[in-house]
Protein backbone atom coordinates (compact mmCIF):
# COMPACT_ATOMS: atom_id res chain seq x y z
CA UNK A 1 0.00 0.00 0.00
CA UNK A 2 1.19 3.50 -0.76
CA UNK A 3 -0.01 7.02 -0.08
CA UNK A 4 -0.73 9.73 -2.63
CA UNK A 5 0.39 13.26 -1.89
CA UNK A 6 -1.16 15.29 -4.70
CA UNK A 7 -3.09 17.38 -2.16
CA UNK A 8 -0.22 17.85 0.31
CA UNK A 9 0.77 21.18 -1.27
CA UNK A 10 -2.45 22.76 -0.03
CA UNK A 11 -2.69 20.73 3.17
CA UNK A 12 -1.71 22.11 6.54
CA UNK A 13 2.06 21.44 6.99
CA UNK A 14 1.55 20.09 10.51
CA UNK A 15 -1.13 17.67 9.32
CA UNK A 16 1.09 16.51 6.44
CA UNK A 17 3.95 15.85 8.87
CA UNK A 18 1.65 13.96 11.22
CA UNK A 19 0.27 11.96 8.30
CA UNK A 20 3.84 11.15 7.25
CA UNK A 21 4.71 10.01 10.81
CA UNK A 22 1.62 7.80 10.87
CA UNK A 23 2.71 6.08 7.66
CA UNK A 24 6.31 5.87 8.82
CA UNK A 25 5.44 4.28 12.16
CA UNK A 26 3.19 1.70 10.48
CA UNK A 27 6.09 0.11 8.55
CA UNK A 28 7.39 0.12 5.00
CA UNK A 29 5.13 1.85 2.46
CA UNK A 30 5.34 3.96 -0.68
CA UNK A 31 5.01 7.73 -0.91
CA UNK A 32 3.85 8.96 -4.28
CA UNK A 33 4.60 12.48 -5.46
CA UNK A 34 5.31 14.24 -8.78
CA UNK A 35 6.87 17.48 -9.90
CA UNK A 36 3.42 18.55 -11.15
CA UNK A 37 1.80 18.12 -7.67
CA UNK A 38 4.11 20.75 -6.13
CA UNK A 39 4.21 18.49 -3.06
CA UNK A 40 7.83 17.37 -3.37
CA UNK A 41 9.04 20.09 -1.00
CA UNK A 42 6.48 19.05 1.63
CA UNK A 43 7.52 15.40 1.26
CA UNK A 44 11.17 16.52 1.42
CA UNK A 45 10.51 18.36 4.70
CA UNK A 46 9.01 15.14 6.11
CA UNK A 47 11.97 13.04 4.92
CA UNK A 48 14.41 15.49 6.52
CA UNK A 49 12.96 14.59 9.94
CA UNK A 50 14.88 11.28 9.89
CA UNK A 51 15.56 8.00 8.06
CA UNK A 52 12.56 6.47 6.29
CA UNK A 53 11.51 2.95 5.39
CA UNK A 54 9.17 4.24 2.69
CA UNK A 55 9.75 3.84 -1.02
CA UNK A 56 9.77 7.35 -2.51
CA UNK A 57 8.37 7.79 -6.00
CA UNK A 58 8.12 10.88 -8.19
CA UNK A 59 7.32 11.66 -11.82
CA UNK A 60 8.66 13.52 -14.83
CA UNK A 61 6.10 15.81 -16.45
CA UNK A 62 6.47 15.51 -20.21
CA UNK A 63 5.35 18.64 -22.06
CA UNK A 64 5.83 19.67 -25.68
CA UNK A 65 9.37 21.08 -25.81
CA UNK A 66 10.33 19.00 -22.79
CA UNK A 67 10.90 15.73 -24.52
CA UNK A 68 14.61 14.93 -24.51
CA UNK A 69 16.52 12.55 -22.22
CA UNK A 70 18.49 15.60 -21.04
CA UNK A 71 15.29 17.41 -19.98
CA UNK A 72 14.16 14.33 -18.06
CA UNK A 73 17.45 14.18 -16.17
CA UNK A 74 17.32 17.91 -15.43
CA UNK A 75 13.76 17.52 -14.09
CA UNK A 76 14.85 14.54 -11.98
CA UNK A 77 17.69 16.61 -10.50
CA UNK A 78 15.09 19.23 -9.53
CA UNK A 79 12.90 16.59 -7.86
CA UNK A 80 15.88 15.13 -5.97
CA UNK A 81 16.84 18.59 -4.70
CA UNK A 82 13.27 19.32 -3.50
CA UNK A 83 13.03 15.90 -1.84
CA UNK A 84 16.52 16.20 -0.34
CA UNK A 85 17.58 12.86 -1.84
CA UNK A 86 20.57 11.72 -3.87
CA UNK A 87 18.70 8.75 -5.31
CA UNK A 88 14.98 8.23 -5.74
CA UNK A 89 13.48 4.74 -5.38
CA UNK A 90 11.11 4.99 -8.33
CA UNK A 91 10.94 7.57 -11.12
CA UNK A 92 8.06 7.60 -13.59
CA UNK A 93 7.22 9.30 -16.86
CA UNK A 94 3.84 10.84 -15.91
CA UNK A 95 2.09 10.09 -19.24
CA UNK A 96 2.92 9.40 -22.87
CA UNK A 97 2.85 12.35 -25.28
CA UNK A 98 1.20 11.86 -28.66
CA UNK A 99 3.69 11.82 -31.56
CA UNK A 100 6.71 11.58 -29.25
CA UNK A 101 8.82 8.46 -29.67
CA UNK A 102 8.79 6.45 -26.44
CA UNK A 103 12.47 5.64 -27.05
CA UNK A 104 13.30 9.21 -25.97
CA UNK A 105 11.71 8.68 -22.55
CA UNK A 106 13.27 5.22 -22.30
CA UNK A 107 16.70 6.74 -22.94
CA UNK A 108 16.15 9.28 -20.15
CA UNK A 109 14.96 6.57 -17.74
CA UNK A 110 17.99 4.39 -18.56
CA UNK A 111 20.28 7.34 -17.85
CA UNK A 112 18.40 7.98 -14.57
CA UNK A 113 19.27 4.45 -13.39
CA UNK A 114 22.77 4.26 -14.84
CA UNK A 115 23.76 7.58 -13.29
CA UNK A 116 22.58 6.38 -9.86
CA UNK A 117 19.77 8.96 -9.65
CA UNK A 118 16.97 6.34 -9.66
CA UNK A 119 16.79 2.78 -8.33
CA UNK A 120 13.85 1.78 -10.51
CA UNK A 121 11.76 3.35 -13.27
CA UNK A 122 8.15 3.26 -14.35
CA UNK A 123 5.45 4.90 -16.42
CA UNK A 124 1.99 6.25 -15.71
CA UNK A 125 -1.13 6.33 -17.86
CA UNK A 126 0.49 4.11 -20.51
CA UNK A 127 -1.73 1.67 -22.40
CA UNK A 128 -0.72 -1.98 -22.76
CA UNK A 129 0.99 -1.47 -26.12
CA UNK A 130 2.97 1.58 -24.92
CA UNK A 131 3.94 -0.34 -21.80
CA UNK A 132 5.28 -3.27 -23.79
CA UNK A 133 7.20 -0.96 -26.13
CA UNK A 134 8.93 0.99 -23.37
CA UNK A 135 9.63 -2.24 -21.46
CA UNK A 136 11.38 -3.52 -24.61
CA UNK A 137 13.53 -0.39 -24.85
CA UNK A 138 14.49 -0.62 -21.18
CA UNK A 139 15.23 -4.35 -21.44
CA UNK A 140 17.91 -3.58 -24.04
CA UNK A 141 19.77 -1.80 -21.23
CA UNK A 142 18.90 -4.65 -18.80
CA UNK A 143 16.56 -2.39 -16.84
CA UNK A 144 13.13 -3.73 -15.93
CA UNK A 145 9.97 -1.63 -16.13
CA UNK A 146 8.92 -1.55 -12.46
CA UNK A 147 5.44 -0.02 -12.58
CA UNK A 148 2.59 1.41 -14.60
CA UNK A 149 0.43 3.81 -12.58
CA UNK A 150 -3.15 3.98 -13.85
CA UNK A 151 -6.61 5.02 -12.68
CA UNK A 152 -8.05 1.86 -11.08
CA UNK A 153 -10.81 1.41 -8.53
CA UNK A 154 -14.15 -0.34 -8.12
CA UNK A 155 -15.62 2.55 -10.13
CA UNK A 156 -12.96 2.44 -12.84
CA UNK A 157 -12.05 -1.07 -13.89
CA UNK A 158 -10.79 -0.43 -17.44
CA UNK A 159 -7.34 -1.84 -16.57
CA UNK A 160 -8.95 -5.28 -16.32
CA UNK A 161 -10.24 -5.22 -19.90
CA UNK A 162 -7.88 -2.94 -21.84
CA UNK A 163 -4.88 -5.25 -21.48
CA UNK A 164 -2.99 -3.22 -18.83
CA UNK A 165 -3.52 -5.70 -15.97
CA UNK A 166 -2.66 -8.61 -18.28
CA UNK A 167 0.53 -6.85 -19.42
CA UNK A 168 1.48 -6.16 -15.78
CA UNK A 169 1.10 -9.85 -14.97
CA UNK A 170 2.99 -11.00 -18.03
CA UNK A 171 5.89 -8.53 -17.63
CA UNK A 172 5.80 -8.70 -13.81
CA UNK A 173 5.20 -4.95 -13.52
CA UNK A 174 3.38 -3.38 -10.56
CA UNK A 175 -0.01 -1.86 -11.39
CA UNK A 176 0.02 1.17 -9.11
CA UNK A 177 -3.64 2.16 -8.71
CA UNK A 178 -4.32 5.90 -8.48
CA UNK A 179 -7.75 7.22 -7.46
CA UNK A 180 -8.27 3.84 -5.68
CA UNK A 181 -11.05 5.46 -3.63
CA UNK A 182 -12.50 7.15 -6.75
CA UNK A 183 -11.44 10.56 -5.39
CA UNK A 184 -13.30 9.95 -2.14
CA UNK A 185 -16.54 8.57 -3.64
CA UNK A 186 -15.77 5.14 -2.15
CA UNK A 187 -15.36 6.52 1.36
CA UNK A 188 -18.94 7.54 2.10
CA UNK A 189 -21.88 5.30 2.95
CA UNK A 190 -24.06 7.40 0.64
CA UNK A 191 -22.92 8.99 -2.59
CA UNK A 192 -25.20 9.88 -5.50
CA UNK A 193 -22.47 8.85 -7.97
CA UNK A 194 -22.26 5.27 -6.68
CA UNK A 195 -25.12 2.77 -7.05
CA UNK A 196 -27.02 1.75 -3.96
CA UNK A 197 -26.25 -1.91 -4.78
CA UNK A 198 -22.49 -1.37 -4.55
CA UNK A 199 -22.67 0.81 -1.43
CA UNK A 200 -24.96 -1.69 0.33
CA UNK A 201 -22.67 -4.56 -0.63
CA UNK A 202 -19.58 -2.69 0.67
CA UNK A 203 -21.41 -1.62 3.84
CA UNK A 204 -22.62 -5.19 4.63
CA UNK A 205 -19.11 -6.59 4.20
CA UNK A 206 -17.56 -3.70 6.16
CA UNK A 207 -19.95 -4.41 9.05
CA UNK A 208 -19.08 -8.13 9.03
CA UNK A 209 -15.35 -7.35 9.33
CA UNK A 210 -15.76 -4.31 11.59
CA UNK A 211 -13.99 -2.10 9.05
CA UNK A 212 -15.00 0.89 6.88
CA UNK A 213 -16.27 0.78 3.30
CA UNK A 214 -13.05 2.45 2.08
CA UNK A 215 -11.06 -0.36 3.69
CA UNK A 216 -13.23 -2.90 1.89
CA UNK A 217 -12.72 -1.06 -1.43
CA UNK A 218 -8.91 -1.05 -0.95
CA UNK A 219 -8.85 -4.67 0.23
CA UNK A 220 -10.75 -5.68 -2.92
CA UNK A 221 -8.05 -4.09 -5.11
CA UNK A 222 -5.34 -5.90 -3.15
CA UNK A 223 -7.22 -9.20 -3.50
CA UNK A 224 -7.76 -8.66 -7.25
CA UNK A 225 -4.14 -9.31 -8.14
CA UNK A 226 -0.81 -9.38 -6.35
CA UNK A 227 0.56 -6.86 -8.89
CA UNK A 228 -1.88 -4.17 -7.70
CA UNK A 229 -0.56 -1.50 -5.28
CA UNK A 230 -3.19 1.11 -4.35
CA UNK A 231 -1.97 4.60 -3.43
CA UNK A 232 -4.94 6.28 -1.72
CA UNK A 233 -4.42 9.98 -1.19
CA UNK A 234 -4.72 11.23 2.37
CA UNK A 235 -4.01 14.57 3.97
CA UNK A 236 -5.33 13.51 7.38
CA UNK A 237 -3.43 11.13 9.69
CA UNK A 238 -6.66 9.27 10.56
CA UNK A 239 -7.33 8.58 6.89
CA UNK A 240 -3.77 7.37 6.28
CA UNK A 241 -3.99 5.07 9.33
CA UNK A 242 -7.36 3.68 8.24
CA UNK A 243 -6.05 3.00 4.74
CA UNK A 244 -3.01 1.15 6.04
CA UNK A 245 -5.36 -0.94 8.18
CA UNK A 246 -6.98 -2.21 4.96
CA UNK A 247 -3.97 -4.54 4.80
CA UNK A 248 -4.37 -6.75 7.86
CA UNK A 249 -7.31 -8.96 6.79
CA UNK A 250 -8.71 -10.75 3.73
CA UNK A 251 -12.05 -10.79 1.95
CA UNK A 252 -13.51 -14.25 1.48
CA UNK A 253 -13.97 -15.48 -2.09
CA UNK A 254 -17.74 -15.06 -1.75
CA UNK A 255 -17.34 -11.47 -0.58
CA UNK A 256 -14.86 -10.72 -3.37
CA UNK A 257 -17.29 -12.07 -5.98
CA UNK A 258 -20.25 -10.17 -4.51
CA UNK A 259 -18.33 -6.86 -4.79
CA UNK A 260 -17.16 -7.83 -8.27
CA UNK A 261 -20.77 -8.27 -9.43
CA UNK A 262 -22.12 -5.20 -7.64
CA UNK A 263 -19.39 -2.89 -8.99
CA UNK A 264 -19.77 -4.03 -12.60
CA UNK A 265 -22.85 -1.78 -12.87
CA UNK A 266 -20.93 1.30 -11.62
CA UNK A 267 -18.01 1.01 -13.98
CA UNK A 268 -17.06 4.10 -15.99
N1 LIG B 1 -0.40 9.25 -12.29
C1 LIG B 1 -1.42 10.07 -12.40
O1 LIG B 1 -1.74 10.55 -13.49
C2 LIG B 1 -2.20 10.40 -11.17
C3 LIG B 1 -3.39 11.15 -11.29
C4 LIG B 1 -4.08 11.45 -10.12
C5 LIG B 1 -3.61 11.02 -8.88
N2 LIG B 1 -2.45 10.30 -8.80
C6 LIG B 1 -1.93 9.81 -7.49
O2 LIG B 1 -2.93 9.03 -6.88
C7 LIG B 1 -3.12 9.47 -5.54
C8 LIG B 1 -4.53 9.19 -5.08
O3 LIG B 1 -5.46 10.00 -5.77
P1 LIG B 1 -6.48 10.97 -4.99
O4 LIG B 1 -5.89 11.30 -3.67
O5 LIG B 1 -6.79 12.12 -5.87
O6 LIG B 1 -7.81 10.09 -4.89
P2 LIG B 1 -8.27 8.90 -3.92
O7 LIG B 1 -7.12 8.24 -3.27
O8 LIG B 1 -9.19 8.04 -4.71
O9 LIG B 1 -9.17 9.67 -2.82
C9 LIG B 1 -8.61 10.59 -1.94
C10 LIG B 1 -9.75 11.27 -1.18
O10 LIG B 1 -10.32 10.34 -0.27
C11 LIG B 1 -10.20 10.83 1.06
N3 LIG B 1 -9.82 9.71 1.91
C12 LIG B 1 -8.68 8.97 1.85
N4 LIG B 1 -8.69 7.99 2.76
C13 LIG B 1 -9.87 8.12 3.43
C14 LIG B 1 -10.47 7.41 4.50
N5 LIG B 1 -9.85 6.37 5.06
N6 LIG B 1 -11.69 7.81 4.95
C15 LIG B 1 -12.32 8.86 4.40
N7 LIG B 1 -11.81 9.57 3.37
C16 LIG B 1 -10.60 9.22 2.91
C17 LIG B 1 -9.11 11.88 1.04
O11 LIG B 1 -9.36 12.81 2.07
P3 LIG B 1 -8.23 13.64 2.89
O12 LIG B 1 -7.36 14.32 1.86
O13 LIG B 1 -9.08 14.59 3.65
O14 LIG B 1 -7.45 12.71 3.77
C18 LIG B 1 -9.28 12.45 -0.38
O15 LIG B 1 -10.32 13.41 -0.39
C19 LIG B 1 -2.74 10.95 -5.59
O16 LIG B 1 -2.43 11.48 -4.33
C20 LIG B 1 -1.55 10.92 -6.51
O17 LIG B 1 -0.39 10.58 -5.78
C21 LIG B 1 -1.75 9.97 -9.92
3D structure, described in words:
The protein is an alpha/beta fold and 268 residues long. The protein has one domain (2-181, 225-247): TIM Barrel. It is built from 11 helices and 8 strands. It has helices spanning 13-26, 40-47, 69-83, 102-114, 128-139, 158-161, 164-171, 196-209, 213-224, 237-244, 253-264, and strands at 2-4, 30-32, 55-60, 88-93, 118-124, 145-151, 174-178, 228-230. An 8-stranded parallel sheet has the order 1-2-3-4-5-6-7-8. Helix 2 links the parallel strand 2 (30-32) and strand 3. Helix 1 packs across helix 2 (40-47) and helix 3 packs across helix 4 (102-114). The mean pLDDT is 95. It binds NADP nicotinamide-adenine-dinucleotide phosphate.
Short summary of the structure?
The relative contact order is 0.13.
Parts with pLDDT < 50 across at least 5 consecutive residues = none
List the ions, cofactors and other small molecules found in this model.
NADP nicotinamide-adenine-dinucleotide phosphate
Q: Given this structure, which CATH class is correct? A: Alpha Beta
Give the biggest beta sheet.
8 strands, parallel
**Class by SSE composition:** alpha/beta
Helical content band: 40-55%
The average pLDDT score comes to: 95
How many alpha or pi helices?
A: 11
- Rounded to the nearest angstrom, the distance between the terminal CA atoms is 24 Å
User: What's the total number of strands?
Assistant: 8
H/E element sequence: EHEHEHEHEHEHHEHHEHH
What's the number of domains? Answer: 1
CATH architecture term: Alpha-Beta Barrel
Q: Quick one: CATH superfamily? A: NADP-dependent oxidoreductase domain
Bulk shape: globular
CATH structural fold name: TIM Barrel
The order of strands across the largest sheet is 1-2-3-4-5-6-7-8
Tell me the radius of gyration.
Answer: 18 Å
The portion of residues forming beta strands comes to 5-15%
Amino acid sequence: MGIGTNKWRRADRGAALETYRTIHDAGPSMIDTAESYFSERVVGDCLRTGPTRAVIASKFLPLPGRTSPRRLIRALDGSLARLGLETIDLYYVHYPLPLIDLAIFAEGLVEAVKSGRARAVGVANFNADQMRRIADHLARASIPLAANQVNYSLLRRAAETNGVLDACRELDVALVAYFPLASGRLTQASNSMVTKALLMCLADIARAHDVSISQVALNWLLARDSHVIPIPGATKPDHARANLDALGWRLSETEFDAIDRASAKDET
